[in-house]
Design goal:
It comes from Streptomyces qinglanensis. Keywords: Antioxidant, Disulfide bond, Oxidoreductase, Peroxidase, Redox-active center. Homotrimer. The protein has a single domain, classed as Up-down Bundle (AhpD-like). It is built from nine helices and no strands. The protein has about 180 residues and is mainly alpha-helical. It is globular and about 50 Å long.
Length: about 180
Amino acid sequence: MALDDLKSALPGYAKDLKLNLGSVIGNSELPKQQLWGTVLSCAIASRSGIVLRALEPEARENLSEEAYTAAKSAAAVMAMNNVFYRTRHLLSDPEYGTLRAGLRMNVIGNPGVEKADFELWSLAVSAINGCGQCLDSHEQVLRKAGVDRETIQEAFKIAAVLQAVGATLDAEEQLAG
């Protein structure tokens, strides 16, 4: 299932999602690697098999092998980090914030692609996973690297739309099943 098929699968009540999906992917001004890395990492983070199966082939076509692997790595490491750091932040005991994390995150330091691209994908995944601490951290790194707010917002718009598309299509599948 390609992008057009994914849009066609959306029910009538989700017309805004259909329009937004076409806009955030089809009309994005992000460079190809940033766009498709964001799409792939967010499709994984959405936990929707429908969305992932629809968009992964085109992401694979548009990304180098290194970028493809890095986008999947961003989704994987942020799945862990978002739970960990969101939990530390939400606990009322601030002492957890002083403890060593003790989790392997080597890919963040050496992602195999430009650091800004990996940070953008990590920010988008963090938006889906709802980790404010990770969002702030990745946004600050991106801003220090000279990435403008419009680019950053484009990434979390993709995250928002893919998450909503996945939730909608998965719900429709369950209701039909």
